[in-house]
Amino acid sequence: MSAIDLVRLSKVYPGGVTALDGVELAIADGEFFALLGPSGCGKTTLLRTIAGLEEATGGAVLIGGDDVTALPPGRRDVAMVFQDYALFPHMTVTDNIAYPLRIRQVGGAERRAKAAGTAGELGLDALLERRPAQLSGGQQQRVALARAMACHPRAFLLDEPLSNLDARMRLEARTFLKRLQRELRITCVFVTHDQAEALALADRVAGMEDGRVRQVGTPAEVFRRPANTFVASFIGSTPMNLLEGEVREGGRVAVGPAEVPGGPGAGALAPGDPVVYGVRPEYLTYAGEPTGGAFSGEVTVVENLGSAQLVTLDGESGSIQVVVDEDTEVAPGTAAWAVPRPDRVLLYRDGALVP
Ligand code: ATP
């Protein structure tokens, strides 16, 4: 079993920066778990504290139910893959992969056989005698993964594993990583600031802010129902529209001069309550003619997304983005309306989702 439990985990760096502030997480055995959040929120510190590369200031790290908080990295039985892969430039692929086995004093022949076996699983057979400088970014990443796998660790810790690859390689490597994790059924914690990557790869995602976990959920949960405006503002390939409004009679919300449907949350609130009105650009319907229950404004920006367009309307309700299909003609400078899909509207009160 290799579940990872973090209990009120804190880390204050010398100098007084609180990088982790009482983190509670229960990562299941075999789970692919992503830590997501803006730069400086504590993702890398959390990963390094699980690995034992940073000492916790408070709380505990449990791996497979064992308290490893006081153990050095080498005795935690987890493998970390770094952003820059940290391969030894003077060693061949085989020697890089076999390195952790050498540290564990596995004999030469057995070491090479095991390294070749792992390399085979990752499609590296043809590259065994090359050095890192003679490999592509994607191949280097596989060597780093193979090195991590060679000792059969209880968990993989991956720090931005795809960030050094170009856009196309990234997609390939993403699919590869997901397949590998499924086959190995190994617990995997990975750090990314790329929310699309987190949603695509992970079984569950934790959104972090200022050393705290703000929401844990499946990709569908955090996308559909972000628990707070912080998570709402950075999950989704186009950010959610978040607009200040006030609840009106009949479950509607006033946002500037617009009166729009308040969605499921409105029933729990009273007329006059201030709210933040949340609706994703995908859940607004564009109209070129005046229509009721809609935001209105002037089209100021049209961005081509390939199979759709992202249109920005500026009006008295604020600046609102709408995803519009590729066949609809949208001209900057014209008046337009955006109708929210009522069942997808989210209301936030004091930053928290109204259930
Ligand atoms: P990024 O996405 O930019 O890598 P992150 O979410 O991984 O950021 P961390 O690297 O964990 O964030 O840093 C969390 C906080 O701790 C930041 O404020 C950072 O400046 C601080 N920090 C990190 N390492 C140290 C250190 N060795 N000494 C002091 N402060 C540190």
Structure write-up:
By secondary structure, the protein is of the alpha+beta class. It folds into 2 domains: 4-227, P-loop containing nucleotide triphosphate hydrolases (Rossmann fold, 3-Layer(aba) Sandwich); 241-353, Nucleic acid-binding proteins (OB fold (Dihydrolipoamide Acetyltransferase, E2P)), CATH 2.40.50. It contains 8 helices and 21 strands. It has helices spanning 43-51, 93-103, 108-121, 137-149, 167-184, 195-201, 219-224, 229-234; strands spanning 4-12, 18-27, 32-36, 58-63, 66-67, 78-81, 155-159, 187-192, 204-209, 212-217, 241-248, 252-255, 258-261, 274-279, 284-287, 295-304, 308-315, 318-325, 335-340, 346-349, 352-353. The strands form 4 sheets. It has a 6-stranded mixed beta sheet with strand order 6-7-8-3-9-10, sandwiched between helices. A 6-stranded antiparallel beta sheet has the order 13-12-11-14-20-21. Strand 7, helix 5 and strand 8 (187-192) form a beta-alpha-beta unit. The longest helix is centred in the middle third of the chain and has 18 residues, at 167-184. The model has no long low-confidence stretch (mean pLDDT 92). The site of adenosine-5'-triphosphate (ATP) has 13 residues, from helix 1. Residues 13, 15, 17, 19, 37, 39-45, 193 line the site of adenosine-5'-triphosphate. This is ABC transporter ATP-binding protein. Keywords: ATP-binding, Cell membrane, Membrane, Nucleotide-binding, Translocase, Transport. One of its GO terms (molecular function) is ATP hydrolysis activity.
